[in-house]
């Protein structure tokens, strides 16, 4: 249950962040909005880290360098989301974003990429993705 609550919270924050960034970008530019978002996110995460004192600096040495660059995707995510919101609106952007996430995680799980446990995909998973895509198409009509 706790995982679902955090997933819902994260999803809500992604949407709110996208809308806020789209608004900021109209005033100062998309890359400037991405920079401010990344900077404020870093500051908040650092403050939370200081308060929780949950540090494992030695563990960084065990992480593959390509995974340490994962945060760099944030800049691309913010730029893409802001641009899409300005072009096609919030609802369609978030819908397309979620389908893209689901499709890529589907590929990752079914192929066992990045060291995740390989999952066998069955008919319900294919039907679920198809229904989501159909729903977005219907919503956009």
TrEMBL record:
Keywords: Membrane, Transmembrane, Transmembrane helix
Name of the protein in its database record: DMT family transporter
One Pfam family recorded for the sequence: DMT_YdcZ
InterPro entries: YdcZ
GO cellular component, one term: plasma membrane
TM spans (from-to): 32-51, 63-82, 88-109, 121-139
